Hints:
By secondary structure, the protein is an all-beta fold. The chain folds into 2 domains: 18-317, YVTN repeat-like/Quinoprotein amine dehydrogenase (Methylamine Dehydrogenase, Chain H, 7 Propeller), CATH 2.130.10.10; 324-626, Methylamine Dehydrogenase, Chain H, CATH 2.130.10.10. The protein is built from 2 helices and 61 strands. The strands form 15 sheets. Strands 54-55-56-57-58-59 form a 6-stranded antiparallel beta sheet, with helices on one face. Strands 2-3-4-5 form a 4-stranded antiparallel beta sheet, with no helix packed on it. The protein has a 4-stranded antiparallel beta sheet with strand order 6-7-8-9, with no helix packed on it. It starts with 8 loop residues before the first strand and ends with a helix. The relative contact order is 0.08.
Amino acid sequence: MTYGEVKPEIYVQMGHTYTVWSVAFSPDGKYIASGSGIWDNTIKLWEASTGKLVRTFEGHKDEVRSVCFSLDGKYIASGSDDRTIKLWEVSTGKVVWTFEGHTGAVESVCFSLDGKYIASGSEDKTIKLWEVSTGEVVWTFEGHTGAVLSVCFSPDGKYIVSGSDDKTIKLWKVSTGEVVWTFEGHTGAVESVCFSLDGKYIASGSWDKTIKLWEVSTGEVVWTFEGHTASVLSVCFSPDGKYIASGSSSGSFLVSEDKTIKLWEVSTGKLVRTFEGHEDGVCSVCFSPDGKYIASGSKDKTIKLWEVSTGEVVWTAKGHTNAVWSFAFSPDGKYIASGSDDKTIKLWEVSTGKLVRTFVGHTDKVLSVAYSPDGKYIASGSSSGSFLVSEDKTIKLWEVSTGKLVRTFEGHKGAVLSVCFSPDGKYIASGSGDNTIKLWNLWELFTWKIVRTFEGHTNTVYSVCFSPHGTYIASGSDDKTIKLWKVSTGELVRTFVGHTDKVLSVAYSPDGKYIASGSGYWDKTIKLWEVSTRKHLRTFEGHESAVTSVCFSPDGKYIASGSGDNTIKLWEASTGEVVWTFEGHTYTVWSVAFSPDGKYIASGSGDGTIRLWDVKSGKEIAQFIDFSDGEWVVITSEGYYNVSADGEKYLNVRVGNEVYEVEKYRDMFYRPELVKHALKGN
Length: 682
């Protein structure tokens, strides 16, 4: 079924997975665009009236710091830490141009009112003026001595105002590139600047916790607005020029002390209203074209729409999924167990995509899960995400058939980042933020005994695995080494040295002859080592970020890797050549695993999805998604889905840029039998 030439597209309502740095209304007020931070790196388009996600724009390789609509609403410009500006077609989500030329992160972008030009401010201390039709640089404005954090065109298009890390605001003449005024007065970096609609005033927000109102004709300060208790990251005039909205946040990674938006009266300098509701700092604010609403983007990963007259929240656009940190196939390949941000382990039936069971008991994130060789038990390790300090430092053993907790293993003094069973199922090995590996005996039911503690790493142990015969344990650490330990004695057999960053993942080949290791952001490689000689055989290069997970195929011919660049790669072990790059995740891929028959690769990501990929074709088969309220969805690459009782509320259908409830299209897409067919490989 098609409507005109436009085919209905079904998709899951997914929110941003990191800080929302920028929000902007479309000129007609129908849509809000948002840009998000590291590991997300996307722009999302939301329906302003409902808060429903319309589409996601993917293409930037780093944080999206700024988004802006063209006056006709047909295009979005985005600036990124990847040093580029991208021009996107709103109706299709496609990239029209990528503007390259800055030598630092692009902090701010702005369209001229006639749509012919884009101005960009960069960490390289310059402003560039780009011609939209050609992608060429018209001017480079130089004069700031610090990063340019914000740029804005005057309403008549003759001037550009810029705010900088050098604590100044500069007014530039577009036609000549000359500085007309330098506005001085802030005692901290100027994060945000904007013109009033009549062009007579400039508002600026600063790290000094104030907003200043400047008269353009004289360069004088009219008002200084004080009241925020942290940096002012964003300011915006109301369309009638009567008010200024400001958003505040601390610059640290800790939760901000000021999480508010404030509304100020321009004529008096008085505070009219404070909008409270975000759970962390506010990075961006924007008025709707009619002035009735304010949109805000926050470090809490949400976008909120506020009614100006009452200060009430109209809607909140947020993610309802939990990051998938780890998962494992059951030995028979019928089930997948996944560990998540929500402190639970989930059990999925591979043939149908159904969520079968949830294991509840951990008090922190579940960072690692492993199946026992007989498939009867699951082991899990927990952490707060801070590898040194964690509320839950335990390993738990669960009975698969009932979901009951069998026992809890205590002894680590730091987060438990990795767990694995010995091949005979008698032992569990665990790696921890306390720099140790512990070996636990499962057969001593009443003592829950630690057999031994392996000490030798000088930093966090991220990954542990047994050799195929259970004789050795390999471990990867923040100290950049892989160590091999003899299980029976605890003796350190050998140390593999060669990575230039932390070793996040280790895996044995099925024959026990080789170890593969994946390393952190400053290394980005997989290395293949010969166990008997300690010889480094090969380095696999191609990922653009940390390699978070590695595993061998059951026949040992291939290595799969997951990365912070949001991709999975399939490598030929004997040559180091890339066979496939699997793309689709919108956040770090934390875990990868082959199915026992080697036909599929499963991947778990911070975007809240588990994805199943066909090794032979390189195509995505389906996504498994569970939501924070217990609902779940499994959806194939063709759009056919199966859901829990109330899971359809997370599905939308897009026709062009119009969004509809899935109910209207249920007969077309709700096809559990086709989902089952796809998951069987047909």
